[in-house]
Design a protein that fits this description.
globular; 132 residues; mainly alpha
Length: 132
């Protein structure tokens, strides 16, 4: 019984993230809410976490705390009628199984690669200065 409850919560969380993704593309949503929504959705779907999952207990805290907090913040920023419309579209897309956006996935991966490249470049410059 408890496992079914967790599965239902996980489905609801995925539905909320999909609805936020749809809301981030809706022109009725204020620009600042769209920016926060994109950040939350990108972090939720990103394979890279702030705290790596292999670290016991702490690894899952960001998934259990940061993502729901981000979702709660964005929900407060989006107009109710727009959010309801996006939830209905997300539920329909989940039932039909048509939610695949390879472009968005590619952009997220590109952003992470650029961040790693910038970090590597920056750190290698610092190490070179220390060797002098």
């Amino acid at each position: 019984m408890a496992i079914e409850g967790w599965k239902a919560k996980a489905r609801n969380l995925k539905l909320e993230v999909d609805a936020l993704y749809l809301a981030s593309k809706d022109r009725r949503v204020p620009w600042y809410a769209r920016v926060v929504a994109v950040a939350v959705v990108a972090y939720a779907f990103s394979p890279i976490d702030l705290i790596p999952d292999p670290i016991p207990v702490l690894g899952y805290l960001d998934d259990l705390i940061l993502i729901p907090l981000g979702i709660a913040l964005v929900i407060k920023l989006i107009p109710v009628e727009v959010l309801q419309d996006c939830r209905e579209k997300a539920a329909l897309a989940m039932k039909t199984g048509k939610r695949k956006n390879w472009v968005a996935g590619g952009i997220i991966i590109l952003i992470w690669v650029c961040l790693f490249a910038f970090t590597f470049y920056y750190l290698s410059g610092m190490v070179a200065k220390l060797k002098r």
